[in-house]
Amino acid sequence: MGSITPPITDADTAQKTKNHNEITVLVTGFGPFGKNKINPSHLIASSLPSSFSVSVSDDDDNDNVTVKIITASPIPVLYRTVRHVVPRLLFPQPHENAVTAAVTRSYPPSVPPPTAPFADLLSLPAVDEDDDDGSADIVAGQRRPFDFILHIGMAAPREFYTMETCAHRDRYIARDEGGETMEGDTLWRDGYKAPEILRPGFDVEDVWRRWKEGLMQDVDVRPSKDAGRFLCDFIYYTSLVEYWRRDPEAMAPVMFLHVPGGVEDLDIDRGRKVALGLVGAMVGSARRTKDAGDNDR
Asked: Rounded distance, CA 176 to CA 38, Å?
């Protein structure tokens, strides 16, 4: 399993030395919530290999990409924590190198603060006590340490897997693990002027085709337009809106995978294959789109 290290300090150097055929993917899963003391989303995320090879060619050419997977610690099922954590994971700023109390201070009093490994892993800056909206200033040239993002969440009692094709801005009225909702929150709508629905920048039909064709026939996978208006939908929109804020026309390399609630070894093994298949489909589809764009120039 990979781990999140402090962000590099020289983005230009890193970009120059990065191999064209190497892609870094951040994968997240959630921590416990309700009666689900063990969340299969994190078990699946943490079971993924640190790297694997993906063939991105639709013909016989040997065009392989090495995919490096970085797995985050389980994300707490808390709206405010997600809103504080995700933007800083996706777009760390130069001063965000030291471990601080940002995550702890985003927790309601009724919920224990995260464990030290979670705080260490994220390496977050302190959050202003008066700043409760979780927003961060957009800095020109902010680093993007991950090429793609895959969020994984549980959807029990489903027995199938879904690739979510959109995320929603409003109506988060279900209570999180701290007993809080986002009812009445208007940051995205009024503060950011963000659309009601955001979609990933992938060609989702192509990703879906590649994903399904690459899996065993007995695995039930489906596309979905409803991520549920809870933390799964919320973290998906949180990531998408961070890319949208920086460039509404740019490709947002984010996807969400819903998995069944099973936590037995067979369930996790199947979930790992499904997740790897989706990552491979994302990489292959994005490379095809990029190559097609380069050829049109």
From this structure: 16
Residue 294: predicted pLDDT: 53
Strand partners, 68: 24, 51
Q: Contact at 8 Å (CB) between 169 and 187?
A: no
Polymer length of the chain: 297
**Average pLDDT along the chain, 297 residues, taken 10 residues at a time:** 34 45 94 93 96 79 86 94 91 54 40 43 38 44 81 94 98 97 96 97 96 92 96 98 94 97 97 98 88 54
User: What's the pTM?
Assistant: 0.81
Place of tokens 């995919």: 67
